[in-house]
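Hey there, shall we discuss this one?
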Amino acid sequence: MANAGIQLLGFTLAFLGFIGTIASTVMVEWKASSYAGDNIITAQAMYEGLWKSCVSQSTGQVQCKVYDSLLQLPGMVQGARGLMLSSILLSFISILVAVVGMKCTTCMAEMPEQKDKVALAGGVIFIIAGLFALVGTSWYGHRIAKDFYDPFTPTNARYEFGSALYVGWGAACLVVIGGGFLCCNCSTKGSGKAPRYPASHSAAPSGRDYV
């Protein structure tokens, strides 16, 4: 039952990370306008995400615009889109696979060894999905930091990390940790069998009688 508890914990963490990955992907605050340095314009705040950009006025009014063309987007945005969507797709597949392989479900109950392999496969896919999300958010964050510290970037055109990046980093870690727990499948084969030792020849009867 300890194995089943670890699997259930891993699945729960990975599922929460899956929800967080979806939330991070659709959020618009991937990068937010910075007020550091000489930028003292506080009447509005600008945010950019993977799908649209928004401007928030000091009055509370928010105006958003969806990106018009996919081909005109920077490669960073296109790459982050692909990585995050791939992470979501792989996480969904791994959820289906892990449900079949977990010990707390009745699927494939008559084949425990195959069931463990299915759970292991689900955990591995979860880890790959988490790494995709981690790479996508880290790549985007690296470009933000690079542009921020670039002396040729205008002060009013600098951005900082948005809340979506922090959500994405946390979600990716949850998915990877959950997948690791699913992979921690302590085998119990042979626990109910007596240990086998090599035959000893010292106690074997010689078959000869000496006078």
